[in-house]
Write a structure and sequence with these properties.
- The complex is a heterodimer of chains A (108) and B (115).
- Chain A has 108 residues and is an all-beta fold.
- Chain A contains no helices and 10 strands.
- In chain B, the strands form 2 sheets. In chain B, strands 2, 4, 5, 6, 9, 10 and 11 form a 7-stranded mixed β-sheet that branches.
- In chain B, a hairpin with a 6-residue loop joins strand 7 and strand 8.
- Classes of the chains: A mainly beta (108), B mainly beta (115).
- At the A-B interface, strand 3, strand 4, strand 8 and strand 9 of A face strand 5 and strand 10 of B.
């Protein structure tokens, strides 16, 4: 792989904010995607960053720093349905390299 | 419109059997990818097609794995003489083009269990 690192698990309360960090190898970088995956289902696209900065999409935002090889996904106003695995995926040329995923558990 | 579909959704095979997994990508999508996802892990790249051409098969774990996309649409991943370590979810994804910014759309996967 390309050393895509993200935390294994995070727990937060309904209505709170959670930030999932992702670090990656910068050589050959061609874009970064965040996917959400509920157990037993397909990964679904959340966000895409190719330039430095913050991309906001409703309750979800994603940030990228290319020089640091770092991204985060910010989930705001957490809802129970946000309990899922969040996958950081870096595009090298045409291929995606995925992290192992961060399991987020939202508690009432 | 229809998304990426895969069949079967579940497959149980006895060790040594051959299996064939089918992927129907989104119509018109040039790029097609196969991934293997072990429990608790992210998807791992297996192979890539651009139309009917298999441009990258560097992720196929052994020569027992074979993939094809003869007409540039439907793809089949074949595993010969299955082994227990082949048990995983096999995901197919397609994207309109391979270039920067084109997201990959994933199918629901085929869960293969080798007994």
């Amino acid at each position: 792989g390309q050393n895509i690192d993200q935390p294994t698990e995070m727990t937060a309360t309904e209505g709170a904010i959670v930030q999932i960090n992702c670090t990656y190898q910068t050589s050959g970088f061609n874009g970064l995607f965040w996917y959400q995956q509920h157990a037993g289902e397909a990964p679904t696209f959340l966000s895409y960053n190719v330039l430095d900065g913050l991309e906001e999409k409703g309750r979800f935002s994603s940030f990228l720093s290319r020089s640091k090889g770092y991204s985060y996904l910010l989930l705001k106003e957490l809802q129970m349905k946000d309990s899922a695995s969040y996958l950081c995926a870096v595009k090298y040329d045409y291929k995606l390299s995925f992290g192992a995923g961060t399991t987020v558990t939202v508690r009432a | 419109g229809a998304g990426v579909s895969q069949s079967p959704r579940y497959k149980v095979a006895k060790r040594g059997q051959d299996v064939a997994l089918r992927c129907d990508p989104i119509s018109g999508h040039v790029s097609l990818f196969w991934y293997q996802q072990a429990l608790g892990q992210g998807p791992e790249f297996l192979t890539y097609f651009q139309n009917e051409a298999q441009l990258d098969k560097s992720g196929l774990p052994s020569d027992r794995f074979f993939a094809e996309r003869p007409e540039g649409s439907v793809s089949t991943l074949k595993i010969q003489r299955t082994q227990q370590e082949d048990s995983a979810v096999y995901l197919c994804a397609s994207s309109l083009f391979p270039g920067q910014g084109y997201e990959q759309y994933f199918g629901p996967g085929t869960r293969l269990t080798v007994t």
